[in-house]
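On clarity, I found the account of how folds are encoded harder to follow than it need be. Since the whole study asks how a given chain folds, the encoding of that fold should be made plain. For illustration, here is how one protein appears when written out as sequence plus structure tokens:
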Amino acid sequence: MSLYQLQKLIYHVNRDPSHRERFRQEPAAFVEGYELSEEEKRAVLNVDVRKLYTLGVHSLLLRPFTLTHKVSNEDYAKALAGLE
């Protein structure tokens, strides 16, 4: 597991429109550009909020990423609390 690589991917999707578009177009190919475990790849591709949070993704990176993927405030809060 590489938390740095995981957070770097999320940061790129959050902050760089070209990365965000690439992620939208070819998510599986996009994640291959980062050194991630299979568990991390699945969490990113599934926008698994709870898993990403438990893997250590900082909430200041995680929330913009989930907003990009239309996760509601209620669903986000439930996932962080482990209530989903």
Observations:
- The two ends are 24 Å apart (CA to CA).
